[in-house]
Design a protein that fits this description.
Strand content: 25-35%
Largest sheet: 4 strands, antiparallel
Distance between the termini: 43 Å
Shape: globular
Structural class: alpha+beta
Oligomer: single chain
Number of helices: 8
Strand order of the largest sheet: 1-8-3-6
Order of helices and strands: HHEEEEEEEEHHHEEHHEEH
Mean pLDDT: 85
Radius of gyration: 19 Å
Number of strands: 12
Length: 227
């Protein structure tokens, strides 16, 4: 698929004329990553901006005590990465890793600055989207301290169902290789606790799991846990 055709399907580029799409596409590069392959690491400089075309990207951060926390899972159409303008380097960054085979569209920091000059409206859209995702990650970190573990896991499963799942006969189906370890890292708990809670829900008939598949059998039960 041509880059121009891809850009037309992404919300932040909708409304551009054909000649504008063609010009903007020159700044972007398509990159493919295999499952578990790293895109960049926490501490790397100037990664630029990435837009997920297909697959799922896992953003993680190491805490002061050496634990890994998953900030969020980035799905098709969403933006991640960061920019450096002048001396305004971020004090804290994160690691990006492909959870499954994934394809992204990438623009370097230098090319983004050129895009900012030529197409400021598009640059602002990308920046606003990236800022929104940063705030979402911040809200997740705050919730780790405020919510009970069961509520955090329930909220995570509902969020995943909304982003990458589907409804089927009253159930919510998530088809992705989400492990107990991933769930623990995304909710700030231990693997043992995540296993215990998920096993309890399975025995109660609220949840079912298979390899690469999570079935939320009673969505209302999980909604109530998040209140």
């Amino acid at each position: 698929m041509e880059k121009e055709e891809i850009l037309r399907k992404i919300n932040i580029f909708q409304g551009l004329k054909d000649d504008e799409i063609k010009e903007v596409a020159k700044y972007f590069h398509i990159k493919k990553y295999k499952k578990n392959e790293y895109i960049f690491f926490e501490g790397d400089e100037d990664p630029g901006i990435y837009i997920v075309l297909d697959g799922i990207i896992k953003l993680t951060k190491e805490t002061a005590d050496g634990k890994t926390v998953i900030l969020r899972l980035v799905t098709p159409g969403e933006v991640f990465g960061w920019l450096v303008v002048g001396d305004s380097k971020p004090e804290s960054t994160y690691t990006a890793q492909a959870l499954v085979d994934s394809t992204v569209m990438y623009i370097s920091n230098q090319d983004f600055l050129r895009l900012l000059v030529s197409y400021p409206a598009i640059a602002v859209r990308i920046t606003c989207d990236a800022s929104k995702r940063v705030l979402e990650a911040y809200d997740r970190l705050k919730s780790l301290a405020a919510e009970k573990v069961e509520g955090r896991i329930a909220n995570l499963l509902l969020e995943l169902a909304k982003k990458i799942g589907r409804e089927e006969n009253g159930k919510l189906i998530i088809e992705a290789p989400i492990t107990r370890q991933d769930i623990a890292e995304m909710t700030g708990t231990t693997v043992e606790t995540a296993i215990r809670i998920i096993s309890k829900w399975k025995k109660e008939g609220k949840l079912n799991t298979k390899r690469g598949r999570i079935e939320i059998l009673d969505p209302e039960f999980f909604e109530l846990l998040t209140l």
